[in-house]
Amino acid sequence: MGDQDALIDLQRARRMTISVCTLAHGRADHLANLVRGLNAQQRPPEELVIAVMQEGLYDLPTVTFPIRQLPMSGGTIPLAAARNAAARAASGRHLVFLDVDCIPDPDLIADYARLLEKHDVLLMGEVLYLPRGALDQGIDFGRFARIAEQHSERAAPPVDELGDCSDYRCFWSLNFAMRRATFAAVGGFDEAYVGYGGEDTDFGRAATTAGVPLHWARGARAYHQYHPHHMPPVHHLESVIANATIFRDKWGHFTMEHWLKAFTLMGLIKLVDGAYIRARDVTSDDLAFTQIQSDEPYASSARVLAALDAGRPAIAQE
Fold first, then answer.
1. Mean pLDDT throughout 91-106?
2. Which of 94-103, 172-181, 302-311 shows the lowest per-residue confidence on average (mean pLDDT)?
3. What DSSP string describes the chain?
4. Residue 8: its pLDDT value, please?
């Protein structure tokens, strides 16, 4: 490579500054592992911006790039507002959003940088799910690649570097990236959504409505760290109902239909005059049922619905 080529590469690298944005409430160990993953990048980010949705900031590992923690006010878990706050505070030309449970593969930032230089689109990187105990001996990307699982209800990585995503409902904010200017043009996440559920689908709908294509990216892989989970998320019942209603009022139909159907079959909610209302309180039996898959790397809503449709009180383990 000649001196001129090297200068061009340097100038290009300076132009494509990248900020990583995440949000966190609890899960200090998961966040620390995300930070360690960023510190292992082949092409480090210019910064990490964390929207902190708890009392007190995090004590984080020492890294080679700046980390800024933004305290979020209020007693709720404002997922949409927190993502917007992190994006506003970020200085990078490109934005990479990672869930607090993600550990980025060492090539994630480089993959996104390369793709965003060529494509002004919304990119969704690969996600693989780690089983319980995967981190007992620390971060080992070679081992992660061998033991992590592909979600059965998510698209597999595309054959080419990009794969079209024609259904905005497939968007989720676990691992995605876009140009900062494009994120601003879409309008960010709608902060009417408070708590859990709906804001991702709304953002996907807003992006496609604004003419921003959604694409699956080959590479840009993140490993999702294990944690216990409920399927459907009965512990977020109220916010799911409220946010599904906000989506209906905005776009003309409900979202999170699979969860609403499960809640209905469980007798937790009912549809009255076109509106979902709570039918009864969540019980310990509901919590136990929705944790049947809790020991697995991820939860399958299809298996839950199949069990409920069949009238079975539990999900048969496979």
1. 98
2. 302-311
3. --HHHHHHHHHHHHHS-EEEEEEESS-HHHHHHHHHHHHT-SS--SEEEEEE-SSS-------SS-EEEEEPPSSS--HHHHHHHHHHH---SEEEEE-TTEEE-TTHHHHHHHHHHH--SEEE--EEEPPTTTTTT---HHHHHHH-B--TTSPPPPSSSEEE---GGG--TTEEEEEHHHHHHHT-S-TT--SSSSHHHHHHHHHHHTT--EEEESS--EEEPP----SS-GGGHHHHHHHHHHHHHHHSS-S-HHHHHHHHHTTSEEEETTEEEE-S---HHHHHHHTTTTTSSS--HHHHHHHHHTT-SSPPP-
4. 46
pTM above 0.90, yes or no: yes
Residues 46/19, Cβ–Cβ less than 8 Å: yes
Residue whose C-alpha is closest to residue 127's, from 259, 244, 223 = 223
